[in-house]
Write a structure and sequence with these properties.
Blueprint: H1 3-15, E1 18-19, H2 20-29, H3 52-55, H4 58-73, E2 80-85, H5 91-103, H6 105-110, E3 111-116, H7 120-129, H8 131-136, E4 139-142, E5 157-162, E6 171-174, E7 177-184, E8 187-193, H9 197-206, E9 216-218, H10 220-230, E10 236-242, E11 244-245, H11 247-251, E12 260-263, E13 266-268, E14 279-281, E15 284-285, H12 286-294, E16 299-300, E17 304-305, H13 306-315, H14 320-323, H15 329-343, E18 353-359, H16 363-367
Parallel strand pairs: 2-3, 2-5, 3-4, 5-10, 11-15
Antiparallel strand pairs: 1-7, 6-7, 6-9, 7-8, 10-18, 12-13, 12-14, 16-18, 17-18
Length: 381
């Protein structure tokens, strides 16, 4: 029997039906049996899905360029901390650190890179990939952010989250109430409980109320986490890249019921089919995410696509970061296809959006970031 299924069934027998968010939490994050804790490879061609860092190192290189620009917008401080939430295997961090060391030495000297990863298995992979940076103290690992037991640093902070919030547990709500998971004859079945005041308030503020037959998500876990994270930023930036929607899009009838399962690059609407063996995600409610950030004094920029963001960063030097190491035309052609996958509607460019927030930064400096200025070429160098 599937071991995580057995564990979930035991919890249901002991406690009664569990919320969908608890089911999702166990499937993905159980320390021993969850999807992100098991020994299989989840990422890349041999896994279940791609992230932008799996496509080409240019994603990390472009972000390194943007981080360097942010560092300069903050006055080139002697120290700046970059905290990456959910860094996976550490490939993005490897690309950012390596490219910064080569191209942006001032920023690299100031940089301290914090990788916030709960999965023991992924933490071991990060240690393998980033050993030199971890040994030198340039990078460090943590299971929680903010770090418990540490005094607050006066250094500016950058929070970065790529495809992180879509994997946080969500409540699923319908006109019948809040979805719960029960078991019958060794199968998971769906039952309903009255929606909590917190769930209903989330719908009132950031979403819409479901029509009969509809399902909507309430991202309460994401709200709690971003409350903790944003509260630690005295001065700095947050960049969140993910697929998702705004409340206006929901009012227009879109993004209703976005929970899905991913396995071997196939999408399923059934999150109960292979617990612990498939990823479970829900589109990000950017209206709620922006509101949580703003509660802690951060200013948010209007939502843009990943295509607009990356094209803005790469526009000034015609994506030299991507092609610099190409020695023959065949290599250049291959990189061009990988870059196309990152920025075009047929790839990841239009399905992913970028939310940027800042605190303690002059508005004109935020607005001047190259990632926010595709097509304008008005960056002051």
């Amino acid at each position: 029997m599937n071991p995580i299924r057995q564990k979930i069934e035991e919890e249901i027998r002991d406690r009664g039906p569990i919320s969908f968010s608890r089911y999702m939490e166990l499937c993905l994050y159980d320390p021993e049996l969850g999807y992100y804790s098991r020994n299989a490879e989840q990422f890349g061609k041999a896994g279940d899905f791609y992230t932008s860092s799996d496509v080409h190192a240019v994603f990390g290189r472009l972000l390194a360029r943007q981080f360097d620009e942010i560092w300069r917008a903050l006055g080139s401080p002697e120290r700046i901390e970059l905290a990456e939430l959910g860094p996976g295997r550490g490939l993005f961090a490897q690309d950012v650190l390596g490219w910064s060391e080569n191209k942006f030495p001032g920023f690299f000297r100031a940089l301290r890179y914090l990788l916030v990863e709960n999965s023991p298995r992924l933490r071991e992979r990060i240690k393998e990939i980033l050993r030199p940076y971890l040994d030198s103290g340039k990078a460090r690992l943590a299971a929680l952010y903010p770090l418990e037991g540490e005094s607050s640093s006066d250094a500016p902070t950058m929070i970065f989250a790529n495809e992180f919030f879509d994997a946080l547990p969500v409540e699923v709500l319908t006109s019948k109430g809040s979805l719960c998971v029960d078991t019958r004859d060794s199968h998971f079945i769906e039952t309903w409980a009255p929606s909590s005041p917190e769930e209903l308030e989330f719908l009132d503020r950031y979403s819409v109320h479901p029509e009969p037959g509809e399902r909507l998500e309430a991202a309460l876990a994401a709200q709690q986490l971003i409350d903790r994270v944003a509260a630690t930023v005295r001065r700095g930036f947050m960049i969140a890249i993910d697929y998702g929607y705004t409340r206006d899009e929901q009012l227009a009838g879109r993004h209703r019921g976005t929970v899905k399962a991913l396995r071997q690059h196939s999408v399923s609407a059934n999150p109960y089919e292979a617990p612990g063996e498939q990823d479970i995600t829900a589109d990000v409610n950017f209206t709620a995410l922006a509101a949580a950030v703003e509660r802690h004094g951060m200013q948010t920029h209007k939502l843009i696509t990943q295509s607009q963001f990356l094209m803005g960063i790469g526009e000034a030097n015609q994506f030299a970061d991507a092609f610099e190491e190409c020695r023959v035309p065949q290599e250049r052609a291959k990189v061009a296809l990988q870059l196309k996958h990152l920025v075009t509607p047929a790839g990841l460019g239009e399905s992913f959006h970028v939310l940027i927030g800042s605190k303690g930064v002059e508005p004109e400096k935020m607005e001047s970031l190259s990632g926010l200025n595709f097509g304008r070429r008005s960056i002051a160098r």
